[in-house]
Amino acid sequence: EALEKGLEKTKDSFFSKISKAVIGKSTVDDEVLDDLEEILVTSDVGVTTTLKIIERIENRVAKNKYLNTSELNQILREEIQALLEENNSADFEQFNYSGKKPYVIMVVGVNGVGKTTTIGKLAYQLREAGNKVVLGAADTFRAAAVDQIKLWGERVDVRVVSQGMNADPASVAFDTLQSAVANDEDIAIIDTAGRLHNKVGLMNELTKIKNVMQKVVPGAPHEILLVLDASTGQNAIEQCKQFTQATDVNALALTKLDGTAKGGVVIGISDQFKIPVKYIGVGEKMTDLQLFNKKDFVDSLFK
Ligand code: GDP
């Protein structure tokens, strides 16, 4: 299925490295653990999360001195699964918007990470599920961003509110929500500018958009979705730090998993930030966005 295919590169690189590390070894010894640590770090799991995983495996080795290397994959799988479960965030259910109308999703992230594509895919899914969806083109900093979102609107047959390039993003967001209310629409997805110029600037801009939204829909935005490009590995972790400091991100979308061997970043981000990974992007087509499920993810990785 799509998830397995999407994780192919990560899987191949990960497991071929592990197989190499255990060649000629029958038990999991310090050397194997050192190699495993390096493999996890180079698969972009991140140092902090890697050390947690290694410690868990060390504990198991301490209990069973002659742990066979043939069991290593299974043990690793169990410990990664357990670590993801400990991240107090539950997996999302599809379209459970519990009566908030319009349900407002504000989408943030730097340019090029796949923000527009993710919005398009999401609009498609939500509309297919029977919701009335509207998009707000509040990334008014780049002409291309407004055009792209309009194109996606046409492609997936969803209404787009736009005031063109250089318009005030807050004003576009306001318009979008006002017309969503007037049109009795279920879900409004607001694109925002992907500039990470400086922390205060970003914070002010996002706060302004949020405040304006609340004038129309109290409690909005219900979801602040941060889009990150998984193929950038540690950069994605850095962007996650910056955006979570600037605003209350409460859901993550990790894109481009299909093109990268850095899928381990999903494990690292999920562990470090305690913000649920809600979606993963596994291709460029409008159907290539999946709800993230921890168990499915680990199963696919180890299949
Ligand atoms: P934005 O600048 O953040 O809005 O980025 P775009 O949405 O324009 O995406 C940048 C490029 O990444 C485009 O060529 C997309 O087709 C591509 N892209 C986005 N998501 C994915 C994904 O999950 N997988 C792959 N392979 N490509 C993606």
Record keyword descriptors for this entry.
51% helix; 12 helices; binds guanosine-5'-diphosphate; 303 residues; alpha/beta; elongated; single chain; 14% strand; 8 strands; eight-stranded mixed sheet
Oligomer: single chain
The neighbouring-strand order within the major sheet is 3-2-4-1-5-6-7-8
Mean pLDDT: 90
Major sheet details: 8 strands, mixed
The secondary-structure class comes to alpha/beta
Provide the low-confidence segments as ranges: none
Order of helices and strands: HHHHHEHEHEHEHEHEHEEH
Range of strand content:
5-15%
Which descriptor suits the 3D outline? elongated
Please give the count of helices. 12
Subunit structure: Part of the signal recognition particle protein translocation system, which is composed of SRP and FtsY.
GO molecular function, one term: GTP binding
Keywords: Cell inner membrane, Cell membrane, Coiled coil, Cytoplasm, GTP-binding, Hydrolase, Membrane, Nucleotide-binding, Receptor
Domain SRP54-type proteins GTP-binding: 276-289
